[in-house]
Amino acid sequence: MNGTLAALLYLTSSVCFILALRGLSSPESARRGNALGIFGMILAIGTTVAMPGMVSLPLIAVAVLLGGAIGTVIALRIQMTALPQLIAAFHSLVGAAAVLVAAAAFLHPAALGILGEHGIHTASLVEMAIGTAIGAITFTGSVVAFAKLQGLVTGAPLVFRGQHMINAGLAVACLALGMWFVVSQSPAAFWLVVASSLALGLLLIVPIGGADMPVVVSMLNSYSGWAASGIGFTLHNNLLIITGALVGSSGAILSYIMCKAMNRSIFNVIFGGFAVESGATPGAPREQRPVKIGNAEDAAFIMKNASSVIIVPGYGMAVAQAQHVLREMADQLKENGVNVRYAIHPVAGRMPGHMNVLLAEANVPYDEVAELEEINRDFAVTDVVYVIGANDITNPAARSDPKSPIFGMPVLDVEKAKTVLFVKRSLASGYAGIDNELFYRDNTMMLLGDAKKVTEELLKAL
Amino acid sequence: MPLPAPDNQLLAASDADPVVLSLTVFVLACFIGYYVVWRVTPALHSPLMAVTNAISSVIIVGALIAAGATAQAQGIAISQILGFAAITLAAVNIFGGFVISQRMLGKFRKKPKQ
Fold it and tell me: Mapping DSSP to helix (H, G, I), strand (E, B) and coil, where does residue A420 land?
């Protein structure tokens, strides 16, 4: 295979990847898109392996099959509720692979065709330093995100004095080491770039709290793309550059959507601004206000007499694994002639689209599931809203109280419905540490208990 | 390669630094990514992450070159070992990413027609 043919085949596989993403514009075309993505990947690997001068093919095959078997088994076995941590773990592998490839290129530049007369080309060195640094940050950042999502370490933000100074210092050091590496081509400089970037990735994600994970996971998704692009620049490979750019912009857009759904800037999320803010307004003495607490029979009675119900799921539903019994409840209601729909807030759950996947897993048809903008107006003409495992995304303070830390965040206007049934473990405040005005409204009935248990009891009572 | 200056002015662009050509491809691809991803329906944002994760492992191409093209007279070079490690990691991602997105997409069903 000559270089021109290889370049054309790489171009074909780039187009396949673009179409794979394009397919995701609707669930019907998505599966075809995924198949095209797989085809593109096979083409990319096949083309590379068929290049002249490739050796150790049996060993390569072993490595691919070994990794492939591990990946397949994990992906087939994983629970859908554990999806966010799985994705985080996968991102870390892309980061690690980028660092390894960069290191290989640095150690043996001739083989990768980046050797000039005076050592490695300067441009390649710059690209290599950037690709390595992003790869290393992606790696440790994703490992921390994984540990937080998996519950191996506390999901609470870890904040300490001088954190920003240390991070800034580390970033400057990273940059300086990178320049030293480009000028000197010294192996010590290369490994110091790797080490400082690894530390930076760790420290960047440590202060970010569990509920901000949708942004973090999207951001790391973006980084893994930029790392691939950086390696593509180093190796003069357009396929890597294009694919990396696609993934990078995809992650960036997702981060933007998530931030906008919380009415916060990306800097605010990354630098743990939220923790500082809510700490600055410490526990205003919580007033004891009357709350209406109901039981499953009351709730079932209200639901039976309703003509329309909207279900608002949140992370609590995922934790309690309540999606299946929730769908059974919805089926029961539908049999009674009640119109049931689901409303999804963009940051519900721990990753973009998390709730949609969980509901789909429980066989909820996707045309019953609506996004915030689609459904928000309908709450006013809805009889019953069933809030399960969500809190801050329904807080009316986001619209009415300019002093609230979440003021300006788009929320689901559940309080406009005739009755709000609010499933919650206790009356404690949500992650943002803010009281939810909704609990004390006349049209709200609290159903205290585990999301799954409450829904089961409700189903029985229906 | 020195070009005779006057009548080859128009060829100047192809004479540009290869980095600029790579940058051209990169910037255009960012724009494609931008417009394609905005059209992804929010319901499929999780599969989008899984698919992008799988395709970002196209970095396996670099790993394959590192492992396969560094033929040496004696034994296996360190860069090859790094290459093999990178192939394995990227393969975990490729298979894992595509399988999990296929699994997710398989669950998205329409309301059965009554």
Answer: strand
